[in-house]
Structure formats: structure tokens, C-alpha cells
Amino acid sequence: MSGRPRVLVVDDEMGPRESLRMILKPRYEIATADSGEAALKTLGTFHPDLIFMDIKMPQMDGIELLRRIKGADPSIEVVMITAYASLETVKNALTHGAFEYLIKPFSRQDLEETARRALARRQTEIGTRNQLTALVDEMRTLATKTRGLEEEARREQLEQSLRVTQLSILREISRGLLGQLDLRQLTSAITDQLKDALGYDEAAIRLGAAPPADAPGSTRIVCPIRDEGSTLGYLLVANRAATRPIDPRERELLEMLSDYLAIAIRNSRLYGEVADTKQYLEQLIVSAGDAIISVDGEGNIRGWNPAAAHIFGLGAAQAQGQAFASLLPPEPYRTARAGLSGENPVRAFDVGAKRADGRALNLAVTLSFLPGRDGGSDGMLAIVRDMTAQREIEAQMHQSERLTALGQMAGGIAHDFNNLLQAILGYAQLMARSPGNTDVVRRGLDVIEKAANSGAETVRRIQKFARLRPDEPFVSMDLNQVIRDSLAITRPRWEEKKVKGGVPLQLELELGPVPVVMGRPAELNEVITNLVLNAIDAMPRGGTLRLRTRLGDHRHAIITVADTGMGMTEEVRKRVFDPFFTTKGEEGTGLGLSVSHSIVERHGGDLRVDSRPGEGTTFTISLPIGMTPTAESTTGGDTGGERKGRILLVDNDPQVLSILGEMLKDAGHHVLPVSSGPEALRIFVPSGFDLVITNVGMPEMSGWDVAERLRAGDPHVPVIFITGWGLQEEDQARCRRLGISALLFKPVSPQQLHQTVQSALTSRPR
Known about the structure:
single chain; alpha/beta; five-stranded parallel sheet
């Protein structure tokens, strides 16, 4: 084998291994090994002077290989190579005797310079290891000879030799400085070496900026330990006065050692700070209320904090190594994990899962991408928060909010019905005082009928909202008549405020010619009534109410309701259509304008408001113009084809039973009214009646039960249901299965009842 230095390259990856071999081959004899085991076998045959090794290798890592190499031959220099470094790794490598630590990527120049220095140190240290005491004796001998020599050239030569020896001593002492990161162990090791190798009676390292009280002298040296201009402490050595004095040449050695100590103390403190930070972060993970779970690249759990054990009911020993996917449903976890990347490092989702004991969980999961050395994935971090209790509280709050909204809605309905009852009661009392005044009676009856229809319309809207009845079709409307009807309903409130409150209220009505509009008169009547009543409330000291109708852009009819009242601020104007928003305090429900806005929108129109404080308010309704419907057949004409029948009428409410019976008798039918289902079944005989009309919601026996039992005895008799509750969709399907001829919703007008009865009788063969 040639006399060139021998270098062994150890790396489990071929690329880095071959790269180092090609760079070093021109200057050194090169051998390679792809594992720690192969490297150990190569030692006996290749006898390397220097080894470059990767610290991350399978089976036997770099630290273990370093330990074995130094055990076999301490003189071999070893340089550690890795793609990432930590203080713990540096400490382990240097403690076990590594010469240097290269971090990928490094330059060719760094590699060659490190190899040169490592081989130079090996060359220098061959034959001198463990001879620190001999070096000290040589230093002192050279120092003595220096004083005795008279020839300047010889003195310079001896001083140079002294300097080399000093550096060798310093290097030997400082070998343990960088490898020792514990400050207490560091100071103890240095002072022990100073006393054992250099023979000092006293050696100490005192930390702090304050100098020691003992003054330096011939037997005592004090060297400050400085780092970047600040004093970290002092290195103090001394001999007893009766023994030898300390050679001044040794002061140079101690000052150089102080510089090394400054670096070592700084590194030790940095290590302590890192260790404290690490301990703090570990404590944070342990104390965290959220589960913090580290998952490797294969999807298996490798880190599991106490919160994870509490949430999932699994201890760390049970969880580690288990597939993280087994804790969650396949979706959305699978999609979230697949979407993780360096460009999209975070994915969050909510999911339902189960604890080990089967208890249901609501979890908020955040997945974070962990990059690997090669730029790929080194796994992920999962932070899981148990939202179960919070979701239960939210559900309770939602339930409470629904109940609150229901109460507010009930208050709004009561508000609307009180307005209608005011009109009914007011005109009823007027008619009672003036029964002979036909104008008052006629106007009162008209208003009472319209108010009752408006109340029925309110109930119908509630039933439609609850999906208890189908939507009714639009009909053609005269907007001017809708306004007149609304004014008639609100007149008692208007007159009461004028007479009892002494408030001067003026009405200006400007009803222009407008085309027919398609819609539901009762709903628009409610809108106008709400706007008029709000206008009256907005003028507590009196004012003028203006109602106007006009044609808009040939496609829309316009209604304006304006008052000269208090007006609104911009903030109130923006929220005036919000549900439950009111400026009336306990007297308001916050539903009137919100409901009105919804009604206008359902008619394909628009409701706007313009207002300023102190300048009144104007509401503008825009409705699309509709086509006049084709002429419909009336029921008041030829009645020659109408049938009269024997009708069994069933309803538990005496007043309803009485009025329906009167309507049917007035149409010429023979009616037998009964107040309960059992009584109806007792009276009914097959073919004895042409038609049965029964209420649905009755105590003791419902209309459903009555119909089913009647069908069992007479499958052909027509049955009409009448209800004030409404029916769900599944109930309407049940009606079809029972062969129910028609479904009427209370209140029922005579005309509607007559048409429905005729349709049912016509469908029954004579």
C-alpha cells in the first residue's frame, strides 16, 4: 500500500458516498463502506487514518460506530456528517471523540480543509497521547533554558518550541471543553486537569463580573474570561508560597485557555437555554388541553400527550404504533391528509368519532405537514380538540333561541290579532249602540268580515310556514280597495287616538288609477295595516298620514305610506326590516315590518323606506302588474244541477258545529250534527248518508279513526276533512290512501263549503 493517508468513507446512501470518494481520491487512499458493520470489518484490513461517516444510518448509527472505532483505535480521527444538527447530537459526537462535525450541504473546500486538519492533528498526536505531564515538564525545561541562554537565535528557537508545546497543552486540555456542555462538570474537569497536569496547588473558575479579592502575585495568576467585551468570570491558579513560583510564561497559556473557556461557557449557557426551552415546550405539550399527536410518514402514531389519552381513552403505550386513521372515520380524514403538502401545510375539519369506551365525540382536528430532509414528508402533527361539551351547550343555546323566537313570534301574532279584534270589537259595540243605523251596521259587518278574513290569512301563513297546508294561488286585486279595507280596519284605533288623546291626526288619500295586481288580498291588507298603525305610533303629537297609489314604469304599481312623525336615524333605518328589531321597547315585537317585507317579496315586489330624524318616514311598495284572470263560473247562477244530500256532520266544538250546520241547511241539505266520533259511528249506517264531514282533531276519537271505521263499513261514502290545525305532508298522503274527498281549513266561508260539498256529492253516483 502506498504512503498516502488512508481515508474510509461510511454512508448508507450510494450518492453521497461516491461523491466523497471522487473528491478525496486524488490525494488519499480511499475505501468505502455502506454500513457500520461493514466499516468495522474494514478497520482490520484497511487501517484508516481518517474516517468520514454519516450519523443517520440504519441498524448501527454514527454515534455507535464512532464509539466502537475509538474503542478499537483511539488514534483514528473521525469526522461526522449529517443533513441536520442538534446540540444533543453535537454533544454526543464530541464526547465520544469526533474531530469535527460537517453539516450537509458543504463545499469541496470545506471537505478538503477538514481532512487536512484532521490528518495534521493525527500526525501531531501520534506518540504524544496521554503524555500531557511530559509536555508540561518540557515547557518548564524550555522556559528555564530560555532564561539561561545568551544567544538570541537559540532563545528564539526555544521560545518557538515553547509556543508549540503550550499549544499542545492547550489543545489537550481544551479537548473536553467543546464536548462538555454541563457548566458544573466543565469547570470541575478543567480545574482538575490544571492541578493534576500542571501541578498547581489551587485552580478555580469563578463566574461573575466581580474580580476575586485575592491579588495576583508570583504564586498566583488571575485571568479574566471575556466574551464579546463582557466579563463572564475569572480563571484563578495558585501555588503555596513555600513551593515554586508560577513561571510568567504559563500566564500566556492560561490566558489562551481563558479564551477557550469563554467559548465553552457561552456554549454551555446556550445549551442550558435550549435545554430549558425544550423542557418548557415538552411541559406545554404535556399540560395542553388539546390532544397533540405526532404521526410518522406511514400514518402511525409516534407521539401521544396526556390530553390525547384523556380524549380518546387510550394510554400512550396502547396508542403508539397504532394507525392514526383508526381513531377517526375515513372521511374527511383521508381527504385532509391527502391534501397536505409543503404548499398547503395545514388542513382542518370537524368530525364525529368514538372513544375506546364507545362514548360519542365531536372533534375539531387540525393536521400540519412535517417536512423531511429530502423535502418530502416526515409525517404530520395532529392537534385534536374535544368539542363535545361545547356542541352540547350550543345545542342547548340554539334550543333556547328557538324557544325565544317562538315566544317573540307568538307575541307578534298576538299583536296582529289584537289589531283585528280591536276592529271587530269596536264595530260590534258601535252596531250595538246604533242597531237602527243601517250604514253603521253595514259598514261594521263589512269590516268584521274583512278582519276575520285577515285573521284567517294570518293563520294560513303560519300553517304554510309550518308546512301544514299548501300555498294558495294568487287572485286579481284592486290595490285601491285593499287600502280602503285597511283604513276601515284601522279606523277605530285612529278615532280613539283623536278623541281620547286629543291628537290632531289628518289623512290625505290620493288613490290614482292603477292596473290589476295579482296576489293575496288578505296578505297585502296586513302590510298596509301594519304601515298605517306604525305611522300612527310615529306621530304621538299628531301629524298627517298620506296614502297614495300610482302607476310606476308601466310594469309596476306603486303604493306610498308617508307620515310626518319623528323619523328614523340611519342606523335604525338600516335595521328596520330585521326580525325582532323594534324601537318600541316592551310594546313592540319587531315582527310587523319584517313580516310585511317578506309578504311583499313573495308577491315579487319591493318594500323600501326613506326617513330622517324629525322629517317623517315614507314607505314605498312596488308590485308587478298582473294579467286579469279569465271569467270564472259563479255559484250564484243556475243551480239546476246542484245536489241536495243527507250529510252527517261531526265536530266537537258546539259553535263550529252550529254554524256549519246552518250553512249546510241554508244550502238545502238535510244535516245530522253530532259532537263526537263514537256518536257518529253509532248513528252511521251504510248507504244512510250521502256525505260525511268530520273534524280531524277531536278528543276521544280523532277524525282519522272515524274515517277508517266508516271505510270499513261503507267504502264508497264521500268523506270531507275539516281542520283548524293543518296537516303535514305525510298526513295528506294518508288522506289519499283513505280516499278523503276534500280537505277544508277553518275558517270556511259559505261559498267555499258549498263548492266543496257539491264537488263531493257530484262524484258519488246517484
